[in-house]
């Protein structure tokens, strides 16, 4: 994993914070100095936090879970989407839909609808519809794809979430905290680091700064994924061998049917039935 150096962070402008009048006092421990009305971030602490975040992301990837990258800033969403796509992770670069994590069952229905529309469009199932209906299908697919393209293959909740701007994406962070999902975020001097599991102090507006930090985390994900296939193949081989051995006897077991159990007669029930069936003394007199 290629961890950025202090020189690379400095050249990327990661140390530039916001103006002093827009700061959050909770970020005091990550601030190095103040120059010309702008706070400067301590890059030593940035590098330390970045290493902790890389270890967290690497552990999540080794468990077989996925990471969700969130960035809705217009000038940065292309960088984050490209890095997440190369790392095989999920991403959200358009509007964050409320309930994406806390109401994931409803989001899964929308994802299923998007897949159905894409499959129908690819197979030509909508050719028999009118032009207006085809246009409505196309618009619906475009709208769903714009918001769900990065998570349409996400079948379960992510194991961790990476956020570029902790202040802008506060709703996503709240949902992750409610579900106990660890959050890694780039935190500028105007944000609150308390809700973040591993805050990375740095400039969340500069393209080079965000690209450098995001690339380092994606490298950690790719490194962990490269170690996964050997373990997965070994587990799959063991599973196939076990199922094949059990399969030989399973057909014979299906053919053998369990014999039906016979009911045992109870003496009390037999006596009660005989009493009801036996004719009474009055019945004999009436016959005579």
How would you sum up this structure, described in words?
The chain folds into two domains: 168 residues, Glucose-6-phosphate isomerase like protein, domain 1 (Rossmann fold); 51 residues, Helix Hairpins. Helices cover 53% and strands 11% of the residues. The protein contains nine helices and eight strands. The strands form two sheets. Strands 5-4-6-7-8 form a five-stranded parallel sheet, with helices on both faces. It has a three-stranded antiparallel sheet with strand order 1-3-2. The radius of gyration is 32 Å and the shape is extended. It starts with 5 loop residues before the first helix and ends with a helix.
Radius of gyration, Cα only, in angstroms? 32 Å
- Domain count, please report it: 2
The rough form would be described as extended
Main sheet makeup: 5 strands, parallel
Contiguous helical run count:
9
CATH homology-level superfamily of the largest domain: Glucose-6-phosphate isomerase like protein, domain 1
For the termini, the CA-CA separation is 110 Å
Count of β-strands? 8
Mean pLDDT: 82
Helix content: 40-55%
What is the annotated CATH architecture of the largest domain? Answer: 3-Layer(aba) Sandwich
Main sheet strand line-up: 5-4-6-7-8
Structural class: alpha/beta
Low-confidence stretches: 231-250, 283-288
- The CATH C-level class name of the largest domain: Alpha Beta
């Amino acid at each position: 994993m290629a961890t950025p150096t202090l020189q690379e962070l400095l050249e990327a402008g990661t140390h530039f914070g916001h103006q002093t009048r827009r700061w959050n006092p909770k970020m005091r421990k990550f601030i190095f100095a103040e120059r010309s009305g702008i706070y400067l971030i301590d890059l030593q602490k940035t590098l330390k936090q970045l290493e902790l975040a890389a270890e967290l992301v690497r552990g999540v990837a080794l468990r077989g879970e996925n990471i969700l990258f969130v960035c809705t800033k217009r000038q940065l969403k292309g960088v984050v989407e490209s890095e997440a796509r190369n790392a095989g992770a999920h991403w959200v670069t358009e509007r964050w839909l409320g309930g994406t994590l806390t109401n994931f069952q409803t989001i899964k229905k929308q994802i299923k609808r998007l897949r159905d529309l894409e499959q129908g469009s690819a197979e030509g199932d909508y050719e028999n519809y009118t032009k207006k209906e085809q246009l409505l299908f196309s618009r619906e697919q475009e709208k769903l794809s714009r918001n769900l393209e990065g998570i349409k293959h996400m079948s379960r909740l992510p194991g961790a979430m990476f956020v570029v701007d902790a202040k802008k994406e506060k709703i996503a962070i709240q949902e992750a905290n409610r579900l106990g999902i660890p959050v890694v975020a780039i935190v500028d001097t105007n944000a609150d680091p308390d809700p973040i599991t591993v805050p990375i102090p740095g400039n969340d507006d500069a393209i080079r700064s965000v690209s450098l930090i995001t690339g380092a985390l994606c490298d950690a994900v790719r490194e962990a994924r490269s170690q996964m296939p050997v373990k997965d193949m070994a587990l799959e081989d063991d599973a196939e061998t076990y199922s094949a051995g059990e399969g030989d006897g399973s057909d014979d077991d299906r053919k053998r049917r369990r014999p039906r159990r016979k009911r045992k007669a109870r003496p009390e029930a037999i006596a009660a039935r005989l009493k009801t069936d036996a004719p009474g003394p009055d019945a004999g007199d009436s016959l005579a």
